[in-house]
Design brief:
6-stranded parallel β-sheet, alpha/beta, Undecaprenyl pyrophosphate synthetase, binds 3-methylbut-3-enyl trihydrogen diphosphate, about 250 residues, 6 strands, binds magnesium ion
């Protein structure tokens, strides 16, 4: 088992401020359409929101922030929009990485990067290396990521490493270290902007006991105040992990 155990095996420590926040940044297209702008203008605007939220999370002492930038299903979009998103991805990596390093923020990418251009793959490697020793916050970008892909790739790695594994020997402990976020605790708080109440193939395994927060705010409008509202909501949740309220009350005494 890696340093972080599973919420279904060990009851995690809880705190008022989430250690790990995972966000589906949705609503860029609608933000632009409402202003009679092309959808892609919403993606550019969304980048500013990411910048603010990253810094605000760092300020609050969040240890891990994971954002969904491009899903394994987003290739189904019109080629012009996909092409724009790829250019924006490369441009923002180049433009932001030194600022991240200065802010002591480590950058990591999860997802099947093999489908991206070599220029993107190289820039990802450079950015991860440059920020590898940063300790203030770990920012993970999920790109060409899918929760099902993650579970399958973990299973494949697990079987490759243990070729004689019998079905009854397959366990969470063996699988977990191969999941793409094995380096982080499971998310405490999930935020989805844009009004939809679904998970859209994001961190399926890791969201087992995450608190789910949905807001109608479109991603480019999600600012520090909106993040504070989500934190406030989170601090009111009773995280029982299968136990009863009464058990929690005695536990606290
Ligand atoms: C989220 O915004 C960004 C990506 C999926 C890349 P959308 O582009 O999905 O915006 P809406 O949902 O169409 O408004
Ligand atoms: C989820 O948003 C993926 C990202 C934010 C990157 P979508 O807009 O693609 O989700 P669906 O298709 O509406 O569920
Ligand atoms: Mg959307």
């Amino acid at each position: 088992m890696s340093q972080h155990s599973s919420s279904t095996l060990v009851i995690p420590e809880v705190s008022a401020i989430p250690r790990h926040v995972a966000i589906i940044m949705d609503g860029n297209g609608r933000w632009a359409s409402k202003r009679m702008m092309p959808r892609v203008a919403g993606h550019s605007e969304g980048l500013g929101a990411v910048r603010n939220i990253v810094q605000e999370c760092r300020k609050f002492g969040v240890e891990y922030l994971t954002v969904f930038a491009f899903s394994s299903e987003n290739w189904r979009r019109p080629p012009e929009e996909v092409g724009f998103l790829m250019k924006l991805f490369l441009k923002s990596l180049k433009g932001e990485v030194s600022r991240l390093a200065e802010s002591d923020i480590a950058l990591r990418l999860i997802g099947d990067l093999s489908r991206f251009d070599l220029a993107i793959q190289e820039m990802v490697e450079f950015s991860e290396d440059l920020t590898a020793n940063c300790k203030g916050l770990t920012l993970t970008i999920a790109a060409n990521y899918g929760g099902r892909w993650d579970i399958l790739q973990a299973m494949r790695q697990c079987l490759a490493k243990n070729p004689n594994l019998k079905p009854e020997q397959v366990s969470e402990e063996l699988l977990q270290p191969h999941l793409s976020m094995a380096y982080a605790p499971e998310p405490d708080l999930f935020i989805r902007t844009g009004g939809e109440q679904r998970v859209s193939n994001f961190l399926l395994w890791q969201l087992a006991y995450t608190e789910l927060y949905f807001t109608d705010i479109l991603w480019p409008d999600f600012d520090e105040q909106e993040l504070h509202k989500a934190f406030e909501w989170f601090s009111q949740r009773e995280r029982r992990f299968g136990r009863t309220s009464a058990q929690l009350a005695t536990h606290k005494l």
